[in-house]
Amino acid sequence: MRWQSLLLIAFLWTLYVGMRKYSCIKTCGREFTDQHSLNLHQNRCVTAKNAENVSRQTQIEARKSRKRRKLEKAEDAAKLMSQALPDGSSSSAVVPDVEMGSVSDSAMDLDPDPDAAAATTDAAAAAAARHPSPSPPLTESGRHTRKTRIPARFADNLPAGPVPIPNPVLPPAESGAGRVLPRVILIVRDTIRTGMNKFGLFREYPHRPSYDPDAAVMTNELLRPSHTAAADPSPISTDSHSPPWPFANMSIYRLMQWFNSGSSLKSAGEVTRLAAEVITANDFDPLELKGFDAQRENARFDRAQALEADDLPGDGWVKDDLVIEVPTGARGDVAGTEHFVIPDFFHRDIVEMIKSTFSGAAARQFHLTPFKRLWKPSASGPEERVHDELYASDAWIDAHEKLQRQQREPGCDLERVIAGLMFWSDATHLTSFGTAKAWPIYLFFGNQSKYDRAKPSSGACHHLAYVPSIPDKIQSVFARLAGGLFSRKRKDSLLTHCRRELMQAAWSKLLTPEFLKAYYHGIVIRCADGIIRRVFPRIFTYSADYPEKVLLATIKNLGQCPCPRCLVLKVDIDKMGLTSDMRTRTAKLRGYFAEKVALAREFVYNRGIAVTGAAVERILKPFSLVPTTNVFAEKLAGAFDIHCALVVDLMHEFELGVFKDVFKHLIRLLYAAVPGGNAVIELNERFRQVPSFGRDTIRRFSNNVSEMKKLAARDFEDLLQCSIPVFEGLLPSPYDGAVRKLLYRLAEWHALAKLRMHTDSTLDLLESATTELGREMRSFRKGTCAQFQTMELPGEQAARARRKSRKKQDSTDLSAHSNRSAAAARKPSSNKTEGKQFNLITYKFHALADYVKTIRLFGTTDSYTSQIGELAHRWIKRLYSRTNKKNAIEQITRHERRETKFRQRREKELADTELRSKTKHSHHGGNESPDQDPLVDDAEVHHYISDSRNSPHEVTSFTRNFPDDPATKDFIPKLKNHLLGRLLNCEFDGDEMSDFTDAERNTVRIVNNRVYAVNTLRVNYTTYDVRREQDCMNPRTHSDVMVRSPETGPGASQFWYARVLGVFHANVYHSGPSAKNRSVQRMEFLWVRWFGSAIGYHSGSKRARLPKVGFVPDTDESAFGFLDPSLVIRGCHLIPAFVDGRTPALLNCTHSAGRAADEIDDWEAYYVNIFVDRDMFMRFLGGGVGHDISVQRRYDADEDTELRGGEDDPQDSDSNADYPMDDDENEDDSEELDADRSEDSGSEDREDRSVDDSEEGSGSDSDSSGTGFSSDLDNDTDGAEEFFTDDDEYGAL
């Protein structure tokens, strides 16, 4: 009977299971008969994953909300306690603790001042008695949450937006029946200052602005500078149609929107976007695509846009012809001008572009009222001007004030604002091979923040025009002119003249009468905020390389006065940075000489004189002018100066100019100094061993950097930032020291010139660095280059031979009687190597002294660098790939309109509340997989370590797998010391607190004795320009980190450095009487190998030396340890000191967990690359606005007193001693050279200066291991006394 009952139950259960349905979530609705099928479905179900992601995000937001409520409760308690303090007491003495629920949480509060807290204990107790604080919140297990402390110097400050503009204070209404007499009030200035944010930044407006785009800026919008947040849609739209117009249905519309956006390649990302935006859309129906043809639908869209443009003129493309005047060379009554037509000039109307942009969605983020950004780093310190954005520059403020003083239009009381125009132009090749090219002109609006404007994906780049090339048939015109008697030289000069005329003719078409009227009288526009304003266009900057600047300024290329901004003579260019040079720049600004140009054109066009004839040269040569009318000067006379607008160009002038020339000559020096090219081979090998850094900050170098094949500007930037350790020791002394000092000055100047946020202090430093760089360059030319007979590089020799061969072939008469000479011309000429000297007579070197003035006038260089235009070329090249290569420019313009219109409609779609909530914050990435942890991109947290448990490790396995490895010695005790110190809220001082007893360590229990290894540590940090960046560290690559040094006092190191050997998390339980939280906690920690500072080595800007560190020897018990990830500032870039070589003495173990798996020894020392990026440089320099000022210390403050006194450094004798200075430099810069004269030419301490760096690095007072590196982590008293008593033996970083 029992057996039958069991069978019946089994049958019923089988029947139940068979009838049971396993359902997915409600929004999906799919049902399955078994759990396995449901699991397979949910792994692929996008709806389920989206719902899971939303649920997880909701939980995170709830957790943040709970944390905010806890902070508010703590602040309320602090307010109640501060009210009970006696008069005169500091209310900031008692700081409430921030209650945290986990040790791994990164938001920690600051320690209170113990003295002030002791002074107010009684008052606080009384206040607490009267106003009892609420009971502390509990964890999920019912226990009290513990309070985690971190010293103030380790606090992580999140970026903060500007303080809103204060509301106007209205006068109180007067009571009484008496009549109020009218009064006349003269308002001289209505200056408004905002409050300071937590970084000490505030604004000063000339008057109250009507619109502030930053008023609603949230902190989250500053957290991801790499993210382009979609602008809030404008209530005003230039597009009167809604989707799916002009297509038949939404299915076709969505498919065409996908086709006309994104990449043209079939990448995995594009397929994912196709599925997400088209196929899975609610309004997509495959049946509606029956008979679909993409080419026909594109033509439909183009026709609809053309019909709309006919009804209402807009900012579309116009095809036109350009006409230039070609001088015929005829004299007398014969006409001296022939009109040459150049077709296919595609352009847009600037006025219409201003209207559509200011009324569009992007204008929501436009700044209409300029302001001064000021910085007050401390309550008692002075205010400093901050230079960053164009709309906060002196040029904009001056233009705004002039506009407000301008007489108003009759009957118009509208607010008058400026549309800041910024132009870029540069010819580019559209393919790697072939002759296809384009010459675009781009328009950007300076009203938009540079952080958005500089991103190619932001849509801020407006294509204004495509300048056509001069057709080859113009050679036929030249051959016909003057009976074909023009010489080859005259034809070349005539072709150059036609190119100048072409550029001016193009701008003559762009500067239409409507634009000129708007320039003086404004345009009435209903802006994006719905307010009608009168907008006045103003041209501020024009970014271009030097050949383009020459065409725009109408001056001669590398003429007698080659600068487009001043009239400094070419022979004086090498005096850059001298006082006389700066005086000349200021006194002799370039202008437009209309009378001289008109007279020269009379000679060329009416008297038949050649463009470069003697009569023309006598008029124009003294000022490097050309016989071409400048359209800007003619049409905007007195209102705009094109010479001032031609701003500096860091990419072409320095990275591809000055430094490239220096680097190239250094290669020549290596060939000359070490015959056989062994030094160059060593250089290439060293560069290959330089580690990369960041995602693409420093990339791996190519096989042979000395050949410089296909290197872009960013490659030369990487070479500059890594050159100092690589070149060390390759040249004999004293030239080695001179070269390293020059490279340091170049890197220092480059870092300062490229800052995104300058203050008056950093601009003063840039000015001093410019003077110093000019001095070093002249000293390098006279002292080092003159000592070697340098020859052409192999690549230069081959290029010269090719040029010579082409020149001979072009000049050879191809008639029948000269075939022999033609064949001889085609033979390769003799490859005799010629000498090559270092040249400072270049415009690019001269331009370096204009950077400080330009930054003060227009803001920082990243706002108008030509790199922005170079990045915009990528869009054109991508559009070119979509064409059929016939009439490519015309097809490019059509593709540009399609993508622009679809992008504008996409912004309108984002107005939907649900979609906006998903894309509002910068850390909500739209292209991430649904199952990815949202905390990966949550930049509000200090760091992120995955909670993955895919790689578990037994705690005892480390010592078992590496039994005799110093890296794993005392692994478990050190780990428990580290965890216990954090659980007991012990302040970090660099020591693992080895004074814990075994009984105390036993109170820390690691659940299941397992720790979980993960691949990466992501650290978010606030940059000097108050943005948020992220570094990703991996124990296999990019494993070096930096932490704030807990040392204090004179000579203390500013930072400590460590190599991450592993990233772990574990579940930890703390028991015992001292436990503050008895629940299981997830704790994160890093296993690190510490670096120590080099003994006897001095670094700093005055010495022009990078900080030098090395691994702490394994004999030191602090060589390996554990680190709290919340203490990591960011990653760092360490370059091996190649000249010191490698050694196994620092870690006496062949295969160790402390090294990479394929390494058996270590580099003896490393250099800290302080120039790896702008933020790193500012951390060492000091004065970064976004950095914690309370813990900042200037890099040179770490140097000893002897150096600050201006005396010679014995280690730097080989830099430029015995090198005489120029006589004019000594005469002009006598004041600047007084402090450094002994360093440049003194010889009193010649014997002391012979001390070599390697001898200092291995001083006699080194530690017991015999290495030259000390452990900053050792708190032994005797060691400390030995370490700090002698400044010469202590290497401060």
Could you characterize what this model shows?
Helix content is 37%, strand content 13%. Strands 18, 19, 20, 23, 24, 25, 26, 27, 28, 29, 32 and 33 form a twelve-stranded antiparallel β-sheet that branches. Strands 5-6-13-12-9-15-14 form a seven-stranded mixed β-sheet, with helices on both faces. A five-stranded antiparallel β-sheet has the order 3-4-7-8-16. Strand 3 (192-193) and strand 4 (201-205) form a beta hairpin. It is globular and about 120 Å long. Residues 115-132, 815-826, 1259-1272 have a biased composition (Low complexity). GO terms for molecular function: zinc ion binding. InterPro entries: Plavaka, Znf_C2H2_type.
What's the arrangement of secondary structure elements?
Blueprint: H1 2-19, E1 22-23, E2 31-32, H2 35-44, H3 46-83, H4 114-119, H5 121-130, E3 192-193, E4 201-205, H6 250-259, H7 268-279, H8 294-311, E5 318-327, E6 337-347, H9 350-358, E7 372-375, E8 384-387, H10 394-405, E9 415-425, E10 428-429, E11 437-438, E12 440-445, H11 450-453, E13 462-466, H12 474-480, H13 488-510, H14 513-521, E14 523-526, E15 532-543, H15 546-553, H16 579-587, H17 594-606, H18 614-620, H19 631-635, H20 642-645, H21 650-673, H22 678-688, H23 713-727, H24 735-753, E16 758-759, H25 760-784, H26 794-811, H27 819-826, H28 843-846, H29 851-858, H30 866-881, H31 888-909, H32 913-919, E17 943-944, E18 952-954, H33 957-961, H34 971-983, H35 998-1001, E19 1004-1006, E20 1010-1014, E21 1017-1022, E22 1028-1033, E23 1040-1044, E24 1055-1070, E25 1081-1094, E26 1108-1111, E27 1120-1123, E28 1128-1131, E29 1134-1136, E30 1142-1143, E31 1162-1163, E32 1166-1168, H36 1174-1181, H37 1201-1204, H38 1223-1228, H39 1230-1234, H40 1237-1241, H41 1246-1249, H42 1253-1257, E33 1269-1270, H43 1277-1284
Parallel strand pairs: 9-15
Antiparallel strand pairs: 1-2, 3-4, 4-7, 5-6, 6-13, 7-8, 8-16, 9-12, 10-11, 12-13, 14-15, 17-21, 18-20, 19-24, 20-24, 21-22, 23-24, 23-28, 24-25, 25-26, 25-27, 25-33, 26-32, 29-32, 30-31
